[in-house]
Amino acid sequence: MIEFYFHPTPNPAKIALFLEESGLPYDLKPVDTSKGEQHSPAFRAINPNGKVPAIVDTEGPGGQPAVVFDSTAILLYLAEKTGQFLGAPEDRPQLLSWLMFIASGLGPFSGQAVHFQYAAPEGLDYAVNRYRREAERHYEVLNDRLKGREFIVGDSYTIADMSAWGWVDRASRVFKNSDSPLASYPELQRWFAKIDARPAVERARAVNKKHAFKTVNDDETKRALFPSNYPKSA
Q1: Given pLDDT bands bounded at 50, 70 and 90, which one contains residue 179?
Q2: If both were cysteines, with which of 34, 69, 138, 146 could 221 make a disulfide (CB 3.0 to 4.6 Å apart)?
Q3: What burial class does residue 103 get, using C-beta atoms within 10 Å of its C-beta: 0-12 exposed, 13-18 middle, 19+ buried?
Q4: 160 and 98 in one domain?
Q5: Residue 138: which CATH number?
Q6: Which Gene3D superfamilies does the record match to this protein (predicted)?
Q7: Cα angle for residues 179, 181, 182 (degrees, 5° grid)
Q8: Side by side, which strands form the sheet with 54-57?
């Protein structure tokens, strides 16, 4: 059994999609990050970095429980555990490369673009421009990669596609005030429509509705999500 610690945000969405695609049995463990549950000692014992997603595989290697955190690490772990969505053996170098491109580039820059457009104080125009432009650049790289290709790596659907889908699904937030956020990236738009039409995507989205997460953006939420903005004694 996979214990899946999640919140309805892009990185956990990737894991929900893998679990629904693979058919692995799993038990949902909601972590309400707006309430600060990610900072609890119990969750920090699973992920010392205090982020979702994380999993506990109760039937890990050698029959021992295995704890895995970070969405890319989880995708690789589950794909190797099941033997699914890894592509052909010769695809491995490119699979790792594109997974890391998403993990170190597309995801973080998209996340910071969202933060500075929606959550940061007014007047930080440099930061807004910096992160939005970098998000656009990463989308362009992925768009170019998909020219003449059905999938990001090789000839089959892999965890690279799942990983990218988690963030591209939030393009409307990354590119604030854009009515058609993928219009400038036609290859990416075509690819996204194909992935988004998979039946498992609908099931993965339904995971978000299985728990009532806090939606009020009050002081508790800000302190929970951005603790580094507040002195520890405050």
Answers
A1: confident
A2: 34
A3: middle
A4: yes
A5: 1.20.1050.10
A6: 1.20.1050.10, Glutaredoxin
A7: 130
A8: 26-30, 2-6, 54-57, 66-69
